[in-house]
Amino acid sequence: MATELLKIYGDRKSQPTRAILIFCKANGIQFEEVKIRLFTSDVQTPEYQAIHPLKKVPAIADGDFTLFESHAILTYLACWYQVPDHWYPADLRKRAKVQSVLDWHQTTLRYGSTRYLINTVLAPTFGKTPNPQVAAEYEQILVQSLSTVETLWLKGDAKFLLGNDQPSVADLALVCEIMQLHRVNSSYKLQVLDEKDRARILSPYKKVQEWIEATKASTQPHFDDVHGILYKAKIKFQKQREIATLQSKINRDPQTTLTDEAAIAAPAIHGGKRTLSKGNKTPAAIGIPIML
Ligand SMILES: N[C@@H](CCC(=O)N[C@@H](CS)C(=O)NCC(=O)O)C(=O)O
């Protein structure tokens, strides 16, 4: 009797979803990817809620066994599919150390990173205006977490967390989180943050940057394949940032003159219907309502 293929429910825009997909691909675990788009009706169906009652991603179904929470999924898959030991060591004490990083991650690095992004680049996606004050608070948590990775978890000259020379599920989970912020080099732009914010946050952490590269290299080509979606997302977020900036300028000063650059962004506010000519014009002159 044919066994049912493992199903991974998720959205590649979600960091923990990407970690699970990369893990399975890197370990030759066969699976079916079921796309559940974040913040859509996909999470509202009774079928999905039977798998993830909290309506989030990721989740898995392995035969009649269902599971959510990405760290639980990663450790389950590592044990059930008997992947190489370094991913989740059989030695109880080594395993507990990996678990310790995973537990730490949820309330520190992930907590700071997701909330920082929600209050900066992702704010328009949630119908919010970016809030610099709140963002600064979460940036503090994020930066402290990166400092902990650099000085505590990346011991000595080891390439991976906990002084290891090969990656564990913790390396993958944390690096997927940081990829949201990261840029690898000028020809490979994956980050959703703009350049100056990314540089401010990440550049002090040289070991963190080397570790990201090592984790990527250990799971290629799957790492890049699964992260491809972030490039598209970055372009969208840049556009949203331009529009939000223009909108707040116009709200502050109705006589704001639109540069060519802003004029290009403006039509998006009106559903992309308006074509603007070049040159500086006031919003009123080109018929943009002052209250947007
Ligand atoms: N601790 C959970 C986090 C799950 C989570 O927050 N997923 C996000 C996407 S990365 C989500 O589904 N957000 C939608 C929502 O919160 O409604 C895990 O590691 O799986």
General description of the model:
- It catalyses: RX + glutathione = an S-substituted glutathione + a halide anion + H(+).
- It comes from Chenopodium quinoa.
- This protein is of the alpha+beta class.
- It folds into 3 domains: 6-80, Glutaredoxin, CATH 3.40.30; 87-219, Glutathione S-transferase Yfyf (Class Pi), Chain A, domain 2, CATH 1.20.1050; 235-292, no CATH class.
- The protein is built from 11 helices and 4 strands.
- The protein has helices at 15-26, 46-51, 70-80, 92-107, 109-118, 132-153, 169-178, 195-202, 206-218, 222-252, 260-265; strands spanning 6-10, 31-35, 59-62, 65-68.
- A 4-stranded mixed β-sheet has the order 2-1-3-4, with helices on one face.
- Strand 1 (6-10), helix 1 and strand 2 (31-35) form a beta-alpha-beta unit.
- Helix 1 (15-26) runs parallel beside helix 3 (70-80) and helix 7 (169-178) packs across helix 9 (206-218).
- It binds glutathione.
- Glutathione is lined by residues 14-16, 38, 56-58, 69-71, 106.
Shape, principal axes of CA atoms: globular
At the third CATH level, what is the topology name of the largest domain? Glutathione S-transferase Yfyf (Class Pi), Chain A, domain 2
Ligand catalogue: glutathione
**Assigned CATH class of the largest domain:** Mainly Alpha
